[in-house]
Amino acid sequence: MPGTPDDPDFSSLDGGEDQQADDIVREVVGWYNAQIVAERRAPVPDDEGIEALKAGREAALADQAQLATADPEEAARIAVVYAARLRELKEL
Question: Average of pLDDT values for 65-86?
Fold first, then answer.
């Protein structure tokens, strides 16, 4: 819920629900990218972990692509799902 310390508040962004959802999904994709790079640079990379991260990134990219044709309700749903996912990922 926007306004709580742990939730990103995208209400000040221009562009409506679809832009807000795109921004949130892009941030999730960025998190996955950073984790993939870090794991690849580890002294002993975890190949299964890298594959799981890549799968998560691909799922986020697929949802981001769906935003191009999403109605406002679907964009809002994606924004809520990815805001929650981003919170979870940052807690790891």
Answer: 94
Q: What is the pLDDT of residues 23-51, one digit of tens each?
A: 999 999 999 999 999 999 999 999 999 99
25-49 burial, b at 16+ Cβ within 10 Å, e below that, comes to: bebbbebbeebbeebeeeeeeeeee
Which of 28, 34, 87 shows the shortest CA–CA distance to 61? Answer: 28
Q: Any residues with CB less than 8 A from the CB of 25 and at least 6 apart, and which?
A: 60, 63, 64, 67, 78, 82
Burial 71-89 (b: 16+ CB within 10 A, else e): eeebbbebbeebbebbeee
Under a CB-based contact definition with an 8 Å cutoff, are residues 50 and 36 in contact? yes
Average pLDDT, the chain: 88
pLDDT of residue 13 exceeding 50: no
Copy the structure tokens of residue 59: 């799922």
